[in-house]
Amino acid sequence: MSIWERPEPPARRTPHPLSRELIVGAALELADADGLEGVSIRRVAAALEVSPMRLYGYADTKDERLDLLADAVYAEIVPPSPTPGHRPQDWQAGLRVIAALTRRAALRHEWFPELLGGSPHLGPNTFAALEARLSVLNTAPNLTGRPTELRRAAAAFHSYLVGALHTELSQRQADRTEGRLRSSGARQCPRACAGYSTRTAAPYSRR
């Protein structure tokens, strides 16, 4: 039984109440700070000030915690519902909105694209995001009323988007690493360069 089919344990009267929502909140903060490696059951429990054993039943495995994390981020990607009287946008504009929301979520949670290439996620927000993609693409030429082609187009769009995000985030991480190296070199250079300059100039100062 998946985590989405399993009810939460009954609430308990304790100084530190627990719920999947609280677990997700703590796990999000850890992942944003330290990446997915930081989302261990011990660290999540410590952040919530409970024992690791209390998390079982809410999220029994790391895969379940990652499913909860992914679904929480998917909630940031689902486009808002159109307001009454609002003119529907064309399919290309709709895809641009989804791409922009996905990129914004990935830049906020840089670990998120790591979860997009593996096993499918089954949470409610994940399905809502998929339904949004299908709904937009269903208005594209030659896709209306063709479910097989529609699913292929949605998968192709998603794959392209994930690939582009991986490329952008890899470059951002490389730029940060290079920036840290440059900053470290700049801090070390004054002392090292001063010594080098002194040694280099010494023979000439004695003339």
Helix and strand arrangement:
Layout: H1 20-34, H2 41-48, H3 62-74, H4 91-108, H5 124-137, H6 147-205
Helix pairs in contact: 1-2, 1-3, 3-5, 4-5, 5-6
What would you say this structure looks like, in words?
- By secondary structure, this protein is mainly α.
- It is built from six helices and no strands.
- The chain has helices at residues 20-34, 41-48, 62-74, 91-108, 124-137, 147-205.
Features:
mainly alpha
Count the DSSP helices: 6
Q: Work out the strand percent.
A: under 5%
Which structural class matches the secondary elements?
Answer: mainly alpha
Could you estimate the helical fraction of the residues in percent? 55-70%
Order of helices and strands: HHHHHH
Major beta sheet summary: none
Shape by Cα distribution:
globular
Regions with pLDDT < 50 over 5+ consecutive residues? Answer: 193-205
Kindly report how far apart the N and C termini lie: 86 Å
> What is the number of E strands?
0
Cα-based radius of gyration, to the nearest Å: 25 Å
Mean pLDDT: 85
Q: Short summary of the structure?
A:
This protein is an all-alpha fold and 207 residues long.
